[in-house]
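Progress note, sequence design subtask.
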């Protein structure tokens, strides 16, 4: 009888505990979905109408070869290229005048939920002539703001930290970012990626060659040398305002 009474006294406790757990899980799920919905930024494809994608360039407009990269700020392979290979490309190819580099940031997959926000942050930094500095911050600190590492994460606090570290005008950045002032530019980049039949990121176009994936320096250099041997590059499009050597 003692055992039966003990078992009966525990049943209400377990029922109550189950109710608490179910309600708690529901509340957590609701909160995560609410945060996720609040932080994910999207673009309207129609925003690209009448806008010509120009990207952002680095290096001399007179360089004989242009490397074009289609990149997604949340793409791990893009982060690998930007932090491992690109420093060599800048030092050994761009600074020496052999190539100019042009990047088109866009969202390659909707699974990269914070990519558009990051691209917008970079465009807003470009308004203050700091695109490449923000580019480096975003790729170097990808794990700090990417939703790939933490779904539902709001990247804005990290972007604001980068704004401070780069010495940008916070009020001007806020007006640009909160006003979504460059979503049409990102939409145009997306249209250009589709036109070029870009299927993954990073994708590089060097002359008549298309390379997919995070390429090592030697692979980039080999294609550059091959293109140079064929003759000068076609005239470049008008560079973005932040074009400069770095």
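Output:
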């Amino acid at each position: 009888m003692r055992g039966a009474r003990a078992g009966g006294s525990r049943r209400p406790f377990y029922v109550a505990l189950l109710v608490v757990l179910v309600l708690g899980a529901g509340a957590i799920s609701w909160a995560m979905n609410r945060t996720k919905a609040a932080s994910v930024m999207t673009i309207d494809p129609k925003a690209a109408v009448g806008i010509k994608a120009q990207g952002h360039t680095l290096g001399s407009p007179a360089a004989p070869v242009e490397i074009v990269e289609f990149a997604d700020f949340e793409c791990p392979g893009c982060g690998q290229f930007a932090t491992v290979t690109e420093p060599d490309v800048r030092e050994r190819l761009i600074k020496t005048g052999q190539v100019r580099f042009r990047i088109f940031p866009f969202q390659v997959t909707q699974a990269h939920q914070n990519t558009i926000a990051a691209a917008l942050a970079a465009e807003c930094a470009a308004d203050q002539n700091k695109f490449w500095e923000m580019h480096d911050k975003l790729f170097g600190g990808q794990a700090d703001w990417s939703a790939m590492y933490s779904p539902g994460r709001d990247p804005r606090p990290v972007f604001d930290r980068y704004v401070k570290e780069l010495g940008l005008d916070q009020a001007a950045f806020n007006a640009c970012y909160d006003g979504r002032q460059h979503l049409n530019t990102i939409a145009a980049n997306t249209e250009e990626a589709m036109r070029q039949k870009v299927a993954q990121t990073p994708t590089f176009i060097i002359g008549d060659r298309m390379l997919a994936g995070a390429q090592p320096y030697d692979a980039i250099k080999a294609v550059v040398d091959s293109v140079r041997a064929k003759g000068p590059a076609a005239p470049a499009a008008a560079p973005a305002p932040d074009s400069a050597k770095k």
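Residues 54 and 237 are 7 Å apart (CA to CA). Work on this subtask will continue into the next period as scheduled.
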